[in-house]
Amino acid sequence: MAWRCLVVFNVISVIIGSSSGYEPTWESIDSRPLPEWYDQAKFGIFIHWGVFSVPSFGSEWFWWYWQKQHMQPYVNFMKNNYPPGFQYQDFAHQFTAEFFNAKEWVDIFASSGAKYIVLTTKHHEGFTLWGSKTSWNWNAVDVGPKRDLVGEVAAALRSGSDLRLGLYHSLFEWFNPLFEQDAASGFKTRLFPDAKSLPELYDLVNTYRPEVLWSDGDGDAPDQYWNSTGFLAWLYNDSPVRDTVVTNDRWGYGSICKHGGYYTCADRYMPGHLLARKWENCMSIDRKSWGYRREAPLGDYLTIEQLITTLVETVSLGGNLLLNVGPTHDGRISPIYEERLRQVGGWLRVNGEAIYNSTAWRAQNDTLTPNVWYTYGPQRKAVYAFLLDWPKDGVVDLGAPVLSSPGRTQVEMLGYGSLQWNPMKPSGVQVRLPLLAFNQMPCQWAWALKITGVA
């Protein structure tokens, strides 16, 4: 009898959590402080990989656009390249990953200066990159590469880098019969989340212990249907990553930009002003797709100048940048993606002091000179001014800094050293940049001035 009581007590404890834990309500869930590491990280890598990487045409929404919306470019692509009767499921056998090397991926991601990654474990197509027990014969262990791709990435990440593991998971699946049945009932039944989505989430957390759980794809179903607050209460109270895990805001229809650990609000989101809550700008190097596209011309890829500008603007406004790459079906990170990531990493090796561990300053833009963005480094008590343009006359007028003790004010360029400056009236600082040849520049694309001794 005592053994039975102990079992019942343990089960109840798991369900309701401790009295000091988080309750399964948004009011309680939203009150959880964001783990400090995430705000300090500033920069992460998104990875969209799945069966959609096989056709690698148009978008990672290939299946939906072809079979549901019957968009002509996708219909013509299949008609011209595949035999009659070919189904989307047949692509899974061609998702081979023969060139996939998790250690090589980690080397590229680490070289970018990113502090965390987010891997798509399952997109809206429903195919899982690990051996999900609820995705029989529609996962990377049973078909295609026949490997636990999530496990390989997690192991390589933890054995050879300081990167933190994040996992993306789509709540719904376009053509899952259980989800379609629930949708037909107006989501009054919960067959799909109980049998598929929730078991997968628990499995991912317990097996791989991610420190970012990036939810997506609510299928227009409310959070009550997904039991989001119940799952998040377990995640924050009793999961193996309860102290360090962070979550986003995509936990059901109406929750985006309203609930969760941090806000994403929309893809490629840039608010233009400070938000009351931590936010993330998820965007892709390819302007038109998150997954790899074979037909993408060079002009569809963002330039390094555009990426650095986006990183600076995002961090200045208090956000994190989650920059996406789309691997090929055989597991390669294409050279255009690798080049962009290594370029960002080279820039961060010079200017990372002004990015990592920074906070938003009282001013985000300068009042006199355009294309100047600010951050603040509380540890060094320094203001950082990012110049996105090098002035033709070598002089920069900064109107936002207010000199509290001019005799103690210093200005330097990261990667170079001290600079000459003069106070301006009624306030501000005029900085004279050094005369440097191109090969003497501390970096390219943008330059950070470190200013100390200002209010």
UniProtKB/TrEMBL annotation:
Instruction: Give the enzyme's EC designation.
Output: 3.2.1.51
Pfam families per the UniProt record, alphabetical: Alpha_L_fucos, Fucosidase_C
| Principal EC category | hydrolase
Sorted keywords for this record are: Glycoprotein, Glycosidase, Hydrolase, Signal
Q: Which residues form the signal peptide?
A: 1-21
**Site note May be important for catalysis, residues:** C282
Domain Glycoside hydrolase family 29 N-terminal per the UniProt entry, residue ranges: 18-353
Output the Gene Ontology terms for molecular function.
alpha-L-fucosidase activity
Q: Which residues cross the membrane?
A: none
Q: Which SMART domains match?
A: Alpha_L_fucos (SM00812)
- Domain Alpha-L-fucosidase C-terminal: start-end pairs: 364-452
Is this entry keyworded Transport? no
Question: Listed GO cellular component terms?
Answer: lysosome
What family name appears in the similarity comment? Belongs to the glycosyl hydrolase 29 family.
Q: What does this protein do?
A: Alpha-L-fucosidase is responsible for hydrolyzing the alpha-1,6-linked fucose joined to the reducing-end N-acetylglucosamine of the carbohydrate moieties of glycoproteins.
Name by which UniProt lists this protein: Alpha-L-fucosidase
Q: Which organism is it from?
A: Gadus morhua
